[in-house]
Amino acid sequence: MSSVAYAARLRANKTLRQIVLVSGGILSLSGAIVILNWPIDLAWRTGMTLAWLAFGCRELAVLRRAYMAYSHMDVGIHGAITLGRYSNTSVSAELLPGSVLLSHAGWLRLQAADGTRFAELVAGNPRKNKDWRRMQVIWRHL
Asked: N or C terminus: which one in the chain shows less Cβ crowding within 10 Å?
């Protein structure tokens, strides 16, 4: 007889998602300003600035689409991740290298089954939130 599944459900936090999107926009613009001040030919600076901004906008659009699609994630004991959609369906995902989980916050890099790669800023209190505490235990075993 199998035991009850041990999993953690982390719900999306709109404030944390907004922080990621706003900081990404600010940093993209800051990078453009830095590139424009490089001591090289104006044509090269302009081209690199446009490329930088295009890349930044594309990354922010991917994040925004993922944030609009997924409402929560379920993380199983062996690291199996399922992303729950707002449409009450789910899709499997995998954890990518570069993910970090600290005691009260984490940065999870994910790839959905459809190939979409995005990151999720998560936060929780292990003393007050059972799912966050479960996530901490699961993370130690990965």
From this structure: N
CA distances from 84 to 13, 46, 93, 112, 115 (A): 14, 41, 10, 11, 16
Using DSSP, state whether 79 is helix, strand or coil.
Answer: coil
42-69 and 14-36 helices cross at what angle (nearest 10)? 170
The CA distance from 88 to 86, in Å, is: 5
Band of residue 4 on the pLDDT scale cut at 50, 70, 90: low
CB 117 within 8 A of CB 102: no
21 pLDDT exceeds 50? yes
Q: What 3-state DSSP class applies to 45? A: helix
CB atoms within 10 A of CB 101: 19
